Amino acid sequence: MSIAVIGAGAFGTALALSLAGKTDVTLWGRDTAWAERRENPRLPGIALPRSLQVTDRLDKIGARTILLALPAQTLGGFLADHAARFDGRDLVSCAKGIDLVTLNGPSALIAQACPRSNVAVLTGPSFAADIARGLPTALTLACADAATAEHLQRDLSTASLRLYRTTDVAGAELGGALKNVIAIAAGAAIGAGFGDSARASIVTRGFAEMTRLAAALGARPETLTGLSGLGDLVLTCTSDQSRNFRYGLALGAGDDFAAGTTVEGAATARAVAALAPRLGVELPISQLVAGLAEGRIAMEHALDILLNRPLKEE
Ligand SMILES: NC(=O)C1=CN([C@@H]2O[C@H](COP(=O)(O)OP(=O)(O)OC[C@H]3O[C@@H](n4cnc5c(N)ncnc54)[C@H](OP(=O)(O)O)[C@@H]3O)[C@@H](O)[C@H]2O)C=CC1
Ligand SMILES: O=C(CO)COP(=O)(O)O
């Protein structure tokens, strides 16, 4: 068995490192000038073993199983250029977002670009730095084809990564994408000084929004209660390791935030705000995050917008 990981960011590098302890792994990045030093600046302080092959040449990728670990908003462009190379292989999406151009999740983008492939999703609570340090976590592997889900579950589980499987691709993927939006709101609440009770309210009502939207898009609501939904939501809303949470903190506090940081929830909030009226679902927290991210709504109005809505049943 051999595996390739496309995207040498923090997550792709961490997954490649973890899997390299078990099988042959090739990590592809568009810029691998760092590879000789065996330390990726996207994952500082982590020494990469010589056994992990790093390349910037897609023609070197022969593996049957490919993990796509590019940010969601860059995946469509990458597939437009390179999908033909991968069609027919097992393709595992590791991105947590909704594409702003098509309003599709990464798995649908991949399936459209590579119609002969089995497409899966790997998601769940997993900071790249934790995985790279060999810390344990549990993840969800989703694939509509049950036999492919089983073999990918086996192939991608490691001594420290315990994978559960599901055939609910939409549910698993949307959990991972939507929790990033709610994490921005949770961060903003903390950054603005609203306190831990406000954060818990946002997490809970945010989870209701995630479940509502996912169900409207064909997901099984119970999938949202698993690792890919609730599990990752709890992690991301409570840890300042999360870039989405930190971005929210900065919004709430009125601070600058490092440009160029991958914050999937900002674009995904905008995608969600576009989907909400089409699907007829009410998503006040996500729509507020979209307004904050676009600069349409000022932070000082955020609380009023949420609290002054008509009272309703829980
Ligand atoms: N980091 C984490 O803890 C986790 C991340 N994820 C998900 O993984 C995905 C990737 O995130 P992460 O690895 O953290 O992101 P990073 O910001 O660490 O890295 C992004 C990587 O994508 C590369 N890239 C961007 N655009 C392109 C392109 N057009 N072609 C080729 N490469 C490109 C960048 O290359 P370059 O360096 O050349 O700019 C960089 O290597 C996201 O969807 C994220 O939500 C999921 C779980 C955990
Ligand atoms: O998805 C993640 C952890 O599961 C990483 O979250 P951030 O992208 O917010 O850092």
From TrEMBL:
Q: Which reaction does it catalyse?
A: sn-glycerol 3-phosphate + NADP(+) = dihydroxyacetone phosphate + NADPH + H(+); sn-glycerol 3-phosphate + NAD(+) = dihydroxyacetone phosphate + NADH + H(+)
Q: What is this protein called?
A: Glycerol-3-phosphate dehydrogenase [NAD(P)+]
Q: What's the domain of life for this entry?
A: Bacteria
Provide the family line. Answer: Belongs to the NAD-dependent glycerol-3-phosphate dehydrogenase family.
Protein residues bound to sn-glycerol 3-phosphate: K96, G124, S126, K179, D232, S242, R243, N244
Q: Where does the Glycerol-3-phosphate dehydrogenase NAD-dependent C-terminal domain start and stop, copy by copy?
A: 168-303
Q: What NCBIfam families would the database entry show? A: PRK00094.1-2 (NF000940), PRK00094.1-4 (NF000942)
Q: Which PANTHER family match?
A: GLYCEROL-3-PHOSPHATE DEHYDROGENASE (PTHR11728), GLYCEROL-3-PHOSPHATE DEHYDROGENASE [NAD(+)] 2, CHLOROPLASTIC (PTHR11728:SF1)
> What is the top EC class of this enzyme, as a single word?
oxidoreductase
Subcellular localization(s) per the UniProt record: Cytoplasm
E.C. code = 1.1.1.94
Q: Which organism is it from?
A: Paracoccus aurantius
Q: Which GO terms describe its molecular function?
A: glycerol-3-phosphate dehydrogenase [NAD(P)+] activity
Annotated InterPro entries: 6-PGluconate_DH-like_C_sf, 6PGD_dom2, G3P_DH_NAD-dep, G3P_DH_NAD-dep_C, G3P_DH_NAD-dep_N, NAD(P)-bd_dom_sf
Q: Active site: which residues?
A: K179 (proton acceptor)
Query: What's the stated role of this polypeptide?
Result: Catalyzes the reduction of the glycolytic intermediate dihydroxyacetone phosphate (DHAP) to sn-glycerol 3-phosphate (G3P), the key precursor for phospholipid synthesis.
Record keywords: Cytoplasm, Lipid biosynthesis, Lipid metabolism, NAD, NADP, Nucleotide-binding, Oxidoreductase, Phospholipid biosynthesis, Phospholipid metabolism
- Domain (Glycerol-3-phosphate dehydrogenase NAD-dependent N-terminal): give its ranges: 2-148
Q: Where do the annotations place NADPH binding?
A: F11, R30, K96, A128, R243, E264
* Pathway recorded for this protein: Membrane lipid metabolism; glycerophospholipid metabolism
By its UniProt entry, which HAMAP family does this protein fall under? NAD_Glyc3P_dehydrog
